[in-house]
Amino acid sequence: AEVSQSYRAAIVATCHAYGATSVTVNTVNDWKARGGCNNDWVLSRDLILEHYANHNQDTTTTPDNNKITLEKVTQTFEEFYQGNPASGSPGLNRLETLIPHTDTIRLLAARCQGRVAIVTGRPRKDCSKFLALHRLDTIIRHSVCMEDGPAKPDPFPVRRAWEMLLLKNDDETNTNTETNADVPTKIFMVGDTPDDIRAAVAANNNDNDNDNVNDNDNDNNNNNNNINNDNDND
Predict the structure, then answer these.
(1) How crowded is residue 3: how many other Cβ atoms within 10 Å of its Cβ?
(2) Closest C-alpha to 113, from 177, 192, 176, 186
(3) CA 61, CA 105: separation in Å to the nearest integer?
(4) Those residues with Cβ within 8 angstroms of residue 48's Cβ, 6 or more apart along the chain or in another chain
(5) Cα separation of 15 and 23, whole Å?
(6) How many CB atoms are located within 10 Å of the residue 206 CB?
């Protein structure tokens, strides 16, 4: 998803709401490029705290760090991102768009025999809403979200998506019903942040260490997997 006007704008707006006016979109982009900033709620809080650590020499106007809690920052962020019905403010999430065309994703899913998953730092409700809005919920049936475990760059979400893609069709309880010829031996991951790259490399190294991947270069096997990576709270 293209989230510069939604998630990233919500980070900036949240920081400004707490007086951290030095935070800009470029600031957010720089932190994202460092990696390890996959949770936008945590990132918003950290940017606010850094602002006051680096830009406010007058300690009498510096807010008490105990008042800048993750819970409060998250609530402020969600009001910007989801919108506030009480005040009639629309959410920034309405500005999100797909990066690839829907037809491209459909073609990719067809070539992978429907084995497409998404790994995202979003809460599951936000992921499901986005997929339904863009009519992808019937194409991408597997998703690994914030609630499922450690976020990228930890290899967990990529490994979990790989496990889900190995299951036959949509039956997530069916773990060993396919023949060897049906089980994919390659997985392709598409992402656009350093955390995506680090998670993929770590997951691949984990596979190799545990001999869980058949790493021969037999070009006759064309069964492939694909994992899509949604950026940001992504």
Answers:
(1) 25
(2) 186
(3) 50
(4) 14, 15, 18, 19, 20, 23, 68, 73
(5) 7
(6) 16
CA atoms of 147 and 80, how far apart (whole Å): 21
Counting DSSP H helices and E strands in the chain, the numbers are 8, 6
Under the banding of pLDDT at 50, 70 and 90, the label for residue 67 is confident
- In degrees and rounded to multiples of 5, residue 62 shows phi and psi of -80, 125
**For the segment 72-93, what is each residue's pLDDT rounded down to a tens digit?**
999 999 999 999 988 889 999 9
In sign, the C-alpha dihedral spanning 178, 181, 186, 187 is: negative
Q: Are 62 and 56 in contact (CB under 8 A)?
A: yes
CA-to-CA dists, residue 56 to 7, 53, 185, angstroms: 26, 7, 54
pLDDT single digits (tens) 126-142: 999 999 999 999 999 89
C-alpha to C-alpha distance for 231 and 119, rounded to whole angstroms = 9
Q: 116-127 in b/e burial notation, b at 16+ Cβ within 10 A?
A: bbbbbbbeeebb
**What pTM does this model have?**
0.80
